[in-house]
Amino acid sequence: MSKRDYYEILSIGKTATETEIKAAYRKLAIQHHPDKNPDDHTAEEKFKEAAEAYSVLSDPQKRAAYDRFGHQGVGAGAGGAGFNPGFSNIEDIFDLFGFGDMFGGQSGGNSRRTVAQRGADLRYDLEISLEEAALGKEEKLRIPRLETCEVCNGKGTEKGTEPQTCPTCSGSGQTRYQQGFFSVMRTCPTCSGRGQIIKNPCKKCRGAGRIEKEKTLEVKIPAGVETGSRLRINGEGEAGAQGGGSGDLFVVIHVKEHEIFERQGANLYSAAPI
Q1: Which tens digits make up the pLDDT trace of 207-243?
Q2: What pTM was estimated for this model as a whole?
Q3: d(CA 98, CA 85)
Q4: What domains lie within the chain, and their CATH numbers?
């Protein structure tokens, strides 16, 4: 499949200035960033497409080669299907264009608030009989999962103490380094992106802020389910970190084979000798 024209992707003319190119890319990058569109694969492709176009048109030498020879002039160096623009989250886009302090914290423009992390979704495979699938039932499930530590309330610190600002990233959770034309932000290796370090960890959770527990849930299985049916229970996945919300629990149904009947859609069939 032929590639789209880079100028067309950014919706700019071939005489666009460096400032116009940067502004066009920033608009598209923010609009289509995967962080804002987690379930939209089309948006992710548009984000990569815009980043690839910007990587060429923002470089004077690559742009000149592209203007003269088209996509063949820049070759594989421009990226292609595996192109990775190198931005781990949407704040990186703002940092690139000088808007990093929009996410700043108390310690200045180089700092931003700790990013909340949503808890992981969980899957539970449940096997039921054909009769139970037809009539429905209530089932008690025992779910091992991570829950917020009740001793430190998820902070990870010993009672009476608070997390310390990370000295490496000054609380931003990221460190900046130069990558060619770009100034790129990466997750801080010291605090793993939390922006804080814990000197006096909670003895219960050992600084994690979450502990593993087993939760018993009563789940209603509706009548008419079949193998592969998925029931979603909001908020019953693992607890989030840094104030993030809990994930969801997905119960996946598996209907056991019956000795006499075979199910086909909403009908039951049985072979009988004549």
Answers
A1: 889 999 999 999 999 999 999 999 999 999 999 887 7
A2: 0.52
A3: 17
A4: 6-85 (1.10.287.110), 122-154+208-264 (2.60.260.20), 164-197 (no CATH)
